[in-house]
Amino acid sequence: MAGSKMEGPSAPALRRDPYEVLSVSKDSSDQEIKTAYRKLALKYHPDKNASNPEASELFKEVAYSYSILSDPEKRRQYDNSGFEALDADGMDMEIDLSNLGTVNTMFAALFSKLGVPIKTTISANVLEEALNGTVTVRPLPLGTSVSGKVEKQCAHFFGVTISDEQAESGIVVRVTSAAQSKFKLLYFEQDVNGGYGLALQEDSEKTGKVTSAGMYFLHFQVYRMDTTVNALAMAKDPEAAFFKRLEGLQPCEVSELKAGTHIFAVYGDNFFKPATYTIEALCAKSYEDTTYKLKDIEALILRKRNELRQFETEYRKALARFQEVTNRYSQEKQTVDELLKQRDTIHSSFTVARSVITAGGSGHFSNGSSSKFPSEDFKADSPGEDSSSDSKDKSGKKKWFNLNLKGSDKKV
């Protein structure tokens, strides 16, 4: 398949066929793809190729290709329609803390503190030591717990030995941190060369007042929550944060363990300081009710995820319609206000209210027409009559005043 330019920030500049990158066929199993990825990731890991910029780009290409082929839905989309069917913004790249430097590590720590999900790679030194079988493995008996403190980008390895009966009942391995440290829970499979190859990893998540991660081998499909899925798309569209929240529920690749010793590890994923933790291994036989509840609740969550996918379509349509009618409401309100304002203006034109106009030292009253009031004409044409009338009023007032005075004199 021809390469194409990549628009997202997390993928290589030129995209090659992911099957070609990992040197696997289109009908390869998940395990074959995983094995190919592990070998190539270890080969091109920045820790081992500090002076080779080309290896860093190849490492990104390998990680990007695996992010497609390891996800059943993305693999199906790619097989059907190629890169065009994939949402580039939703493709996340893992960050190698050992290659970031102090300043960039501080920025990554800040974003993580603000709640931005950040994927980090596992140190190549840890993977290589495990693959060579040179790691120290401490026993972790079923039904017990061990507490410890692991340095950043280092790992503590534990061996969990189980019998046939215990394997049939199911096994649970969980890690918690009361200090809310960041860590990874890792599961390694026996390699043909005698070492251990990474098979599963779970990043810690904050749950209540602690951070935790767990692996559940219960003979039925269990799921893990990957909060980095669609993280960029969700950041761009806050409403998508709700609708895409359950999209991070991904099926775990391994659902059961066989009798024997299995290797787990706690990897320190803090940005600057060691991670404190408590790891415990349990046989599910004593937790049958809890096991059934887990199966039931995950079935409900999957059903709810499908319902939300349909509801999102309905919601988006309703939201678009709401925006449309809201815009019309604003326009109609403005139109009605303007019409009523014009009506009020017309009403106010029907009035006999007069305004004073002064010209050349003389004044007259006007209501917008040139005619004069009759009373004004009468006064203007009969000035003598007006003065005679004024004299009579004055003499009347005087006579009335004098009579009162005379009356008051008599009383005295």
Please describe what this structure looks like.
By secondary structure, the protein is of the alpha+beta class. It contains 12 helices and 16 strands. The strands form 5 sheets. Strands 3-5-13-7-8 form a 5-stranded mixed β-sheet. A hairpin with an 8-residue loop joins β1 and β2. α2 runs antiparallel to α3. The protein is elongated.
Strand order of the largest sheet: 3-5-13-7-8
Helix percentage range: 40-55%
Low-confidence stretches are 1-10, 88-118, 365-385, 404-412
What is the percentage of strand-forming residues? 15-25%
Number of helices: 12
Query: What quaternary form is this?
Result: single chain
What is the typical, i.e. mean, pLDDT? 78
Region (Disordered): 1-30, 364-397
Subcellular location: Membrane
Pfam families: DnaJ
Main location: membrane
Give a quick set of tags describing it:
Helix Hairpins; alpha+beta; chaperone; Jelly Rolls; single chain; 412 residues; 12 helices; J_dom_sf; DnaJ_domain; J domain-containing protein; elongated
Quick description:
This protein has 412 residues and is an alpha+beta fold. The protein has helices at 18-22, 30-44, 53-69, 72-81, 102-113, 124-132, 164-169, 231-236, 240-243, 288-349, 374-381, 383-411; strands at residues 4-5, 14-15, 137-139, 144-150, 155-162, 171-177, 183-190, 196-203, 205-207, 210-217, 223-225, 249-251, 260-268, 275-283, 355-359, 362-366.
Secondary structure layout:
Layout: E1 4-5, E2 14-15, H1 18-22, H2 30-44, H3 53-69, H4 72-81, H5 102-113, H6 124-132, E3 137-139, E4 144-150, E5 155-162, H7 164-169, E6 171-177, E7 183-190, E8 196-203, E9 205-207, E10 210-217, E11 223-225, H8 231-236, H9 240-243, E12 249-251, E13 260-268, E14 275-283, H10 288-349, E15 355-359, E16 362-366, H11 374-381, H12 383-411
Parallel strand pairs: 3-5
Antiparallel strand pairs: 1-2, 4-14, 5-13, 6-10, 6-14, 7-8, 7-13, 9-10, 11-12, 15-16
Helix pairs in contact: 2-3
